[in-house]
Amino acid sequence: MIILSKTKGSPVVQDIDKIDRIEYQSGSVYEGEVFDGWRDGLGTLTLSYGSSRHGYWREDHPVGRGTFFWPDGRFWTGYWVDGKKQGKGILTLPSGNSFECEGSGQSLDLRSLKAFNQGRDYGSGTYVGDWKDGKPHGKGYFFNFGGICEGEWLNGRMHGKGFKLYGDGNQAYSGDFVDWKPHGEGVMTADWNCRLFHLREYRGSFENGQPHGQGSCITFKNSVIDGCFVGGKLDGLGTMTGSDGAIYRGNFSNNMFNGMGKMTLPDGRAYEGEYKDDKLHGKGKIISADGEVTYGHWDNGKLTSG
Question: How many CA atoms lie within 13 A of 210 on its CB side?
């Protein structure tokens, strides 16, 4: 069965008589109607990073009316033309609040946002919710061309638990806020074409809007990293598990392997030693799958002696 949104905030279920399943090397999965090997007809494409698109397809491209779902619970219902979002649609947030919002290519045009509830002008945008002494205070949401902020407010500023949708709709944060910024514990997610955030998902501590402290993240290549972040970048000891099963344990700096570390490959081979900017650099040793050890010295990824 396929979920399609017909009205604001109300997905409905529609059955398909015949469902084919296609699994892609990227990890994405399609279930629905197929013609001559193409996604063609009504179907659901679930991407490897958790987002999915439900609706009609022609020769592998999304067309007509459909719904795009994000892993955090957001969804947008509208139309696709030539494989791209186009025209008016309805954006529904995890809270259930909905907005009229136009699609634009692979993104959303948040400049077109219109709330269905009556709001009041505040600063550079519109606020809907509780007020105190002429300022947002309590619970509510604010939106303008830069995105949407909803949750708890204190003396005119977002402060407490909340949700923020950024820029072109491809980056979102849910968690603690202090003075408008992510600060405390939270989750930041981004789509593949987001230029604002270099990770697909980050869960952990934030400070002044950036990952800072202990956290766990998933990269756009589906590697999983647990470690320490400083000012938005990996810095300190951590562990990275690649999508191919390779595991790195060691030091990070500036989002790269730097310092001492050990990389173990799925076949059991390993390198243990010094790294510089993701490359073998300095003293180290190669350990074969059967435990044989070879010592050497590397310069910028190249073995110079051993």
Answer: 10
